[in-house]
Design brief:
- With 166 residues, the chain is of the alpha+beta class.
- It has three helices and eight strands.
- It has one domain.
- It has an eight-stranded mixed β-sheet with strand order 2-1-5-6-7-8-4-3.
- The termini are far apart.
Length: 166
């Protein structure tokens, strides 16, 4: 009888400890991501990011990020719009919550865009050219009084906790 009581106490303590540890606020990799709207496919996650500059909204990718990015550029030789991310809509999510939407764009386009874009989604990256730029409006901000969604405090706080702010 005493043995059964001790066993129950030990199991209760173990379960209580596990629940307490699960409740602690721990930042885990993969909670931030840029996804394709049409397919839900992950393009870039926090695991792919070496650093983020909040002043220029430039993401520096690590080697895994470069490979992940390049997997969406299916052309060989000369870049082709239809074989890249160009023109596809994306959504930035943090811990599953949609933060803002935008479109993959290229400086090769002569058109303008009023929302958030990730520029030069047409090109493959390498160890020397390993950055992507998130802009608000192209070629310039169409309405300077508009709220810039890139300055989202939750995203910046998350990236800071992960040690990714530059």
């Amino acid at each position: 009888m005493v043995r059964n009581i001790m066993l129950c106490v030990c199991i209760s303590l173990l379960l209580g400890s596990m629940m307490l540890m699960a409740g602690c606020s721990k930042v885990t990799a993969g909670d931030f991501g840029i996804y394709l709207v049409d397919s839900g496919e992950l393009v870039i996650s926090d695991r792919d990011i070496q650093g983020y500059n909040p002043n220029t909204h430039t993401i520096t990718l690590n080697q895994q990020g470069i490979e992940h990015w390049n997997s969406f550029q299916t052309y060989s030789g000369i870049p082709k719009l239809a074989e890249s991310l160009y023109g596809r809509d994306f959504v930035v999510k943090l811990e599953g919550e949609k933060m803002y939407r935008g479109e993959f764009y290229s400086g090769a386009s002569s058109g303008s865009y009023a929302g958030v874009i990730i520029l030069d989604s047409l090109f493959k990256l390498d160890n020397t050219h390993n950055t992507i730029s998130i802009q608000f409006g192209y070629p310039t901000i169409s309405d300077p009084t508009s709220q810039d969604p890139r300055d989202n405090p939750a995203i910046l706080s998350y990236l800071e906790k992960r040690g990714l702010l530059q």
